[in-house]
Specification:
The protein is α/β, with parallel strands linked by helices. The chain folds into 2 domains: 170 residues, 3-Layer(aba) Sandwich (Rossmann fold), CATH 3.40.50.720; 187 residues, Dihydrodipicolinate Reductase, domain 2 (2-Layer Sandwich). It has 13 helices and 18 strands. It has a 7-stranded parallel sheet, sandwiched between helices.
């Protein structure tokens, strides 16, 4: 099922990395699609998919405004450190937007601006946050929920010592996950813990044992779902790799404060990035998988206790040569983009995905859209 009509609306994707390129390819099936990036290499493979490549420095505000002017919808897939200002520029240009940049700033700081310009901006469009929020938003309308837990991770199939991890997003954003304080809600109170804390071993059918740790994935849910007393999101990795990251953080390798070396100021994080990013890069053809488990506890209108669980285990698509994280993140994004393009989701302002999920029919559409592309969520009710 596709929502783009015969007139083929136009979409521009900002960023042509692993996920941005998957988004552009999928949208090109039903929409006039362009992708903008400063890397000719990133753009070169998209022409064959019917995507118009646009070479551009997306950090140039005036150039960005001119670039997006002809398009019906903007999709943001830039690194997190660029995300907030990119979204601001798109809003001020009067364009609707779906964004996956996962920037550290509070997106609601742009809500008044977006409402004043009469635009719809759907933020944090990925797996979690993203799909998890759509699911929660839907069931928040059906049940009186009192607990939400999301465990999620994207990992390489082949474990390589010592990191046993590969970055499919901007690696600097990955380091941000290791340093950004993690927030969750317990007994109705906000709890703030350091990232990588409270590790637990968790069993997953078909995978074995993974290790979970606190990360700042609740994001907007802290503000939009204050009536749910217990909410937490934890990231998954192979057991043991978290300890290496703690050592690096404790030793200051993730610090942004310059230290002087032979009279030259150097930010430790820049050195760490230079050394680690080549080791975290997926090799051509290297396979990955995405795993997520969402558990929601609540009561129905009759007071009966209900537990709803969603399971996802998605793997590298060998036929299309597309990594799982690009599929699970990118296709969630393109599904929501279709809802916005058709006007099925038209709420103005900053709209996290729980707002999308609360819209009748949205969850069913997104699940069907993902299923068509081989991404299957399994639901159980107890």
């Amino acid at each position: 099922m596709h929502l783009c009509g015969m007139s083929k609306p136009s979409v521009i994707v900002l960023g042509a990395g692993l996920v941005g390129s998957a988004i552009a390819r999928d949208l090109a099936r039903t929409c006039q699609t362009a992708a903008a990036d400063r890397s000719p290499e990133a753009l070169s493979a998209l022409s064959s998919a019917g995507v118009t490549p646009l070479l551009c420095d997306l950090g140039d505000r005036s150039r960005l405004q001119a670039l997006i002017a002809p398009y019906d919808l903007v999709v943001g897939a830039v690194p997190g450190f660029m995300g907030f200002e990119t979204v601001r520029t798109v809003i001020e240009s009067g364009k609707n937007m779906v964004d996956i940049s996962f920037f550290p700033e509070n997106a609601f700081d742009l809500d008044a601006l977006a409402q004043a310009h009469g635009v719809t901006v759907v933020t944090d469009c990925g797996v979690a946050p993203g799909m998890g929020n759509i699911i929660l938003g839907h069931y928040d309308q059906q049940l009186r929920l009192h607990r939400y837990e999301c465990l999620v991770g994207g990992l390489p199939v082949q474990r390589e010592w010592p990191w046993e991890y590969k970055a499919v997003f901007s690696p600097i954003d990955v380091i941000e996950e290791y340093t950004r304080p993690a927030r969750y809600v317990q007994h109705g109170q906000l709890v703030v813990r350091e990232a990588l804390s409270d590790t637990e071993l968790v069993e997953f059918p078909g995978l074995g044992t993974l290790e979970s740790w606190n990360s700042d994935g609740l994001r907007s849910l802290i503000h939009t779902m204050p009536h749910i007393p217990d909410m937490i999101e934890k990231t998954l990795r192979y057991p043991g790799c978290v300890e290496y990251l703690r050592v690096l953080r404790k030793a200051g390798f993730f610090s942004t404060e310059p230290v002087e070396i032979n009279g030259v100021p150097v930010r430790p994080i820049d050195l760490t990035a230079r050394l680690l990013f080549p080791q975290w890069k997926l090799k051509p053809g290297e396979e990955d998988f995405t795993v997520m488990r969402i558990v929601m506890d609540g009561t129905d209108g009759g007071g009966k206790s209900t537990r709803i669980t969603y399971h996802l285990l998605d793997r590298f698509d060998r036929k299309e040569n597309t990594i799982s994280m690009a599929r699970t993140t990118g296709f969630t994004c393109t599904a929501v983009a279709q809802l916005v393009l058709k006007g099925h989701f038209a709420r103005k302002g900053i709209c996290p995905h729980e707002y999308v999920g609360a819209q009748p029919g949205s969850l069913d559409f997104v699940l069907s859209y993902l299923k068509e592309r081989g991404v299957h969520y399994q639901k159980t009710v107890a």
